[in-house]
Amino acid sequence: MKTVIRMIAVIAFTVLMTMSCTKNELGESAETVKKLKTDFYHMTVNGSVGFDLFIKEGGASSAEELSDFLTRYLSAGPFGKLETKVGAASFACSALKVKHNTGGYLIGRNFDWDNCTTLIIRNIPKSGYSSLSTVNLDFLGFGEGYKPEGMINSFKAVAGVYVPMDGINEKGLVVADLLAGDNEVTDQKSERKDLTTTSAIRLLLNKAADVPEALELLTEYDMHSDIGTAHHLFIADASGNSVAVEWVNNEMKVTESDVLNNHYLCAEKAGQGLGEVSLEHERKLLEARDAKNGVMNSEEMADTMFDVLALPDGYFKGGTQWTIVYDTKQASATHGRISW
Predict the structure, then answer these.
(1) Which helix (H) or strand (E) holds 112?
(2) What is the pTM for the complete model shown?
(3) Which of 32, 109, 223, 294 is deepest in the core (most CB within 10 A)?
(4) d(Cα 330, Cα 232) in Å, to the nearest integer?
(5) How far, in Å, CA of 268 to CA of 252, rounded?
């Protein structure tokens, strides 16, 4: 491993491959949150935590609408009225796909943002695929200093199911959210149901087995940007498909790619984005892939992602918050919390 940074924790989790586990609803849905390291937690959530109802009611076209639903739904639990205000600030990130040297594919992902509290959620919905996802708990708006500790705060953390930044499901589908690099807001308007960026990730993890299914699902909903800026999704599967999904003038654009950073890949806006840093990260990732003929083991992938970390006090006060290596064959992930 590179010595320029130190991993506070690298914990391997395998997504449940069976749906035979007991599944409960709100009030019985979450195991006690486990603290792994400072600002780094894990919990298992059984059941949909209302997500099927959320979709049935039409979804949400904004963070405010999602917050309203979560406040109403959480307040049906054992602790009385609990409010949330979903939001976020700017973030960057990187993603890369290569072949695994033992078969299948690896997807590396850096999440670059201000210092935050991270929660790994293992979700076993009533209907849909089991998954493992990573959540920035600051996005839930439970107030400054919130930690998922204690009975009520642990209960509130189940809302993280709705705001994954990345994840993998039991079929090996991987989805990650990255900023596209400009302020074009996606705000599709039709008779379809609505999704925000992060709730779209949850839908795909629950319902899509591969990239074609994920793309078909996205066409069935109106997409709305979280945090008033442009996003693109990196989606990959166990068969080796990987694409960047972007929105230009409210139209979805799909580009096959092994890599994604913070500039557009689609023909309409190719290269536009956060500028030289994003382009340099893309160059380094592709050079590392090519140097290994597109084949790596998990440690080599982690080292590759470490080479494109966002440094603290640079573009972001916190820099890279976590690095993940997803294994599509094993439907597993190695999560790391970065310490500077």
Answers:
(1) strand 105-112
(2) 0.90
(3) 109
(4) 26
(5) 11
Q: Are 165 and 136 in contact (CB under 8 A)?
A: yes
Tens digits of pLDDT across the chain (340 residues): 333 333 333 434 444 333 222 333 444 455 679 998 889 999 999 988 999 999 999 999 998 999 999 988 888 776 566 676 766 555 679 999 999 999 999 999 999 887 889 999 999 998 899 999 999 998 888 888 899 998 888 888 999 999 999 999 999 999 999 999 899 999 999 999 999 999 999 999 999 999 999 999 999 999 999 877 899 999 999 999 999 999 999 999 999 999 999 999 999 999 999 889 899 999 999 999 999 999 999 999 999 999 998 877 655 566 889 999 999 999 999 977 665 5
CA 208 to the chain's CA centroid: 15
Cross-strand pairs, 169: 131
What dihedral angle (degrees, nearest 10) is formed by the CA atoms of 237, 228, 135, 14? 0
Residues 111, 189: contact at Cβ < 8 Å? Answer: no
Q: Measuring CA to CA, which residue among 11, 9, 97 is closest to residue 329?
A: 97
Q: Please state, in angstroms and rounded to a whole number, the distance separating the CA atoms of residues 92 and 113.
A: 7
**Three-class secondary structure of residue 207 per DSSP:** helix
Helix (H, G, I), strand (E, B) or coil at 228: helix
Q: Is 241 left (phi over 0), alpha (psi -120 to 50) or beta?
A: beta
Residues 6+ away with beta carbon under 8 Å from 95 = 107, 108, 109, 110, 176, 178, 234, 259, 260, 261
* Identity at 269, one-letter amino acid code: K
CA pair distance 141, 86, nearest whole angstrom: 5
Which has the closest alpha carbon to 226: 326, 145, 140? 140
User: Which SS3 state, helix, strand or coil, does residue 225 take?
Assistant: coil
Query: Which residue type sits at 270?
Result: A
CA distances from 80 to 45, 75, 116, 118, 141 (A): 20, 5, 27, 25, 18
